[in-house]
Amino acid sequence: MTDPDTEFHAKLRGLVGQPTGGSEKPSIAPDPVNQPMIRHWAHALDDMNPVYLDPEFAAASRFGGIVSPPVMLQTWTMPAPKLEGIAERGGAPMEITNNPTAFLDDAGYTSTVATNSEFEIERYPRLDDVISATSVFEEVSEEKKTALGTGFFLTWLITYTDQHGAVLGRQRFRVLRFRPAN
């Protein structure tokens, strides 16, 4: 008979290197990088950098043309949200068909809070790039006690590439999965 605690920790350690969504297939952007979306982003965030908005200026820049704000990488690969049934999915905007961390819920670590996100940019996306993203678990902490409760920090690495497979950037995303404090 196996010790359930040992089995749990083995599953937890086994996440490292595994795809976050259970599939090794990349997530492909529904649309290529395009000027209207860049313009919406620039205006929404009041980031009026002329390499994002002014074709003449951008052409004379080191980029040689319009580029996307680099932290838009995540935005390009987001699927259209499915709102029907969102409450039943715990607020998740998409169907979760294969959740490799479901065993954490079963063990009582039912709450999640995002703690931080870090970007490393290799190159700015250009108009008409088709961006793909692959996401794997990179690190799982030892159990930590926090003001929110006891849990584990899970870090995954998302690698964004263009249509030729060239890396555009990477994003580390970290969450705390925890048992709420009483």
UniProtKB/TrEMBL annotation:
Coiled coil: none annotated. Residues 14-33 are annotated as: Disordered. Pfam families: FAS1_DH_region (PF13452). Residues 31-167 form the FAS1-like dehydratase domain. This is FAS1-like dehydratase domain-containing protein.
